[in-house]
From TrEMBL, chain A:
InterPro entries: ABC_transp_permease (IPR001851), ABC_transptr_urea_perm_UrtC (IPR017778), LivM-like (IPR043428)
Membrane topology: Multi-pass membrane protein
Primary localization: membrane
Organism in which the protein naturally occurs: Acetobacter orientalis
Name of this chain's protein: ABC transporter urea/amino acid/sugar permease
GO molecular function, one term: branched-chain amino acid transmembrane transporter activity
Classification via Pfam families: BPD_transp_2 (PF02653)
Membrane spanning stretches: 67-94, 130-153, 160-178, 208-229, 259-277, 297-320, 332-356
Protein localization: Cell membrane
Keyword Transmembrane annotated: yes
Automatic annotation (TrEMBL), chain B:
Domain ABC transporter residue range list: 7-246
InterPro entries: ABC_AA/LPS_Transport, ABC_transporter-like_ATP-bd, ABC_transptr_urea_ATP-bd_UrtD, BCA_ABC_TP_C, P-loop_NTPase
PANTHER family: CONSERVED COMPONENT OF ABC TRANSPORTER FOR NATURAL AMINO ACIDS-RELATED (PTHR45772), HIGH-AFFINITY BRANCHED-CHAIN AMINO ACID TRANSPORT ATP-BINDING PROTEIN (PTHR45772:SF8)
GO molecular function: ATP binding; ATP hydrolysis activity
Species for this entry: Acetobacter orientalis
Keywords: ATP-binding, Nucleotide-binding, Transport
Protein name in the entry: ABC transporter ATP-binding protein
GO cellular component terms given for this protein: plasma membrane
Record-annotated membrane-spanning stretches: none
Highest taxon of the lineage: Bacteria
Amino acid sequence: MNAFSCQSARSFKSVVWTAGLVLLAAIVLAVASLLPESSPLHASAFVVSLAGKYLAYAMLALSVDLVWGFAGILTLGHAAFFGLGGYAMGMYLMREIGARGAYGDANLPDFMVFLSWKSLPWYWCGTDHFAWAMMLVLVVPALLAGVFGWLAFRSRVSGVYLSIITQALTYALMLAFFQNGFGFGGNNGLTDFKDILGADLHAPATRAALLVATGVALAAALLAARFIVGSRFGNLLVAVRDAENRTRFLGYRPDQVKLLVWVFSAMLAAVGGALYVTQVGIINPGEFAPANSIESVIWVAVGGRGTLSGAVLGAILVNFGKTLFTAWLPEFWLYGLGLLFIGTTLFLPNGIMGLWRPTKKNDPEEITPEVSAPEGEHP
Amino acid sequence: MTEALLLDVRNVSVTFDGFRAINSLSLALKPGEMRAIVGPNGAGKTTMMDIITGKTRPDSGTATFKGHDLTRLDEPAIARLGIGRKFQKPTVFEALTVTENLLLSLKGIRSPFAVLFARQSSRERERLAELLSLTRLESVANSTAGDMSHGQKQWLEIGMLMGQEPDLLLVDEPVAGMTDAETMATADLLREINKTRSVVVVEHDMDFVRALGVPVTVLHEGSVLAEGTLDDVSADPRVIEVYLGR
Ligand SMILES: Nc1ncnc2c1ncn2[C@@H]1O[C@H](COP(=O)(O)OP(=O)(O)OP(=O)(O)O)[C@@H](O)[C@H]1O
Ligand SMILES: [Mg+2]
C-alpha cells in the first residue's frame, strides 16, 4: 500500500503543474502553427493534429486512472465511452456537411442516401444543433455508464469479473456500430467532415483553436479530478478501493460511491472522444476495439497509476512512441507495447511518476484490491 | 420482558453448507449494558456479530435493535441505525492517515455527493481531537494507518467505532496481539465507553474479561452454554468440559 501512502497528504500538487504545462504546450503549438511556413518555428498541420490526438488520449487515460487508480475498478472497456462521445460529435459534424456531400442531400448524410433511407432515424434528430450534440456527448455515455455501473456495483461484481464485462461492453458496442442498419455508417463510420460551427475544419486557425480547446478541456479535467481525489470523497474512494466491506459497516454505500466516480469518468472519456474526432476527422467502430481500452490502461500503468499526472504523461509518451514506432517498424508495435507493459509492471510498479516519489523501504505489495485485503473474517 | 431491550436476538440459526454455525441462539441486551462473550474457536461468536450487522442473514429466528428488524436491513442501514463493529482482524484504511480514517468514521455525512462537497466543520475538528486523545493517537495523527503497530490499529479501529457514535458497539477480540499493559488499558477504555454506550465484546483473554467485570455469555457450537459472572461460568462443569475437553 505504500506506493500510495507516501503521498498520503494526497495534495496532488503535480496535477496543477501538469494542467498548466498541458495548456501552455497547446497554446504554444497553436501559435506556432499560425506562423508563416517560412518561419523556423512553424508547426505543421500534421504536428498540430497529432498533438490534439495525444491530448484527447490523455483525457481517456485520466478517466481510466480515476476509476482504476482510485476506486480499484480495472476497466478494460473505457474506449466505449470515448467512442460514444466521438460518435455524438461525429453526428453533428456529419450534419454540418449538409448538401456538400457526394450525393448532395441537404438532410441525409451520404451513407444514409447510399442505403436509400428516406429520412433521418429519430436519434439523429437535433444533431444539427451543436448544443444538442454536445449534450449527447455527455449524456449518452453517462446513461450507459450509469445503468452498467448500477447493475454491476449493486450486484457486487468486482475484480476480474468486472474487467471482463467492461471488455464485453465495448466489444458489443463495436459489433453494433459495425451494422449498417444501426445508423452510424457501419464499417466506414462517420467521416468527410467539412466544418465545425461554420469554421473550416481544415483551416489552420480552426485546427489551432481545436488544439487549444483540447488543452483547456484536459487541464480542466485534471483540476476537476484533483478536486475529487483530494476531497473527503477521494479518501472514501481509497477506502472503498482497499477495504470495500469495511466502508459498509461505517454506513457508506460503496456501490453509490463507485457509481459516482464511474459516471464522471465515463463523461471525461466521452469529452476526450468528441475532441478526438474533430482533430482526427473520422470515427469508426474500430475505436470500440477491446485493444484500445487495454492500451489506455497500459498508458496509465506506464505513467503511474493513481497519480493523475502520470496518466497524462503515460498517454502522451506511449503514443509518441507509437507514432515513431509505427512509422519505423509497424509490425512490431504490439510486441513493443507488450514488452513495455511487462517491463513497467516488473521494474516500475509505480510507473514513471514512481521515479519522482521516494518509495519506502519494505514496500510490500502493489495494490491490487481484488487480490489483497480480504476483509471477511472467514477464509 | 417488560423492560425495553436495546438488542434482542431470538432463536437464531444459521447453516453454512449443511454446517450449523449458529443453533437457536438468543441474546438480549439492555440499554447501557456491557456483555462479554467467550467460547472456544468456531463457537460462532463472529458469526453472531455478522448476523447483527447484516453481513449474514439468519435462516430462522429474529433479531431486533431499537425495535427495527435487523434481518431486513443491509450493513450500511444497520450501521446508520447505530451499531458499530470492530473486526477480529483489525481493518483500518491503510493508505489513509489516522486522522483521515477517523474523519470518514464520524457520524453524519454519508451520501456520496455530500461527501464530495464536505468541508471539515469546527464540530468535526473537535470530535477528531477528542477521538485522537481518547485513543492516544495524537502523536501519530498524520501518519499513515498502514504504518501503525498492531495495537495502534486496534485502537484506531475503536476510535473509528466511537466516531460513529453508535448506541451499540460490537467488539471482536480487541486485545489479540496486545501486550499486557495495552490489554489493561483497552479494558479501561471499553469501561469508559460503556458509561455512555452499550457494548458486546468477544474475547478469549480471561484476564481481560475479568478486568471488564461484566456479565459473561459462553457460546458453544452456536448456542448459549452458560450465562453469569465470570466466576459463576468458570465454575460451571459444562463450561469446564467444553474448554478442557478440547
Ligand atoms: N461464511 C461462512 N462459510 C462457511 N463457514 C463459516 C462461515 N462463517 C463461519 N463459518 C463457520 O462457522 C463456525 C463459527 O465461526 P465463527 O467465526 O463465528 O467462530 P468464532 O467463535 O468467532 O471463532 P474464533 O474464536 O476462532 O474467532 C466455524 O466453524 C466457521 O468455520
Ligand atoms: Mg471469531
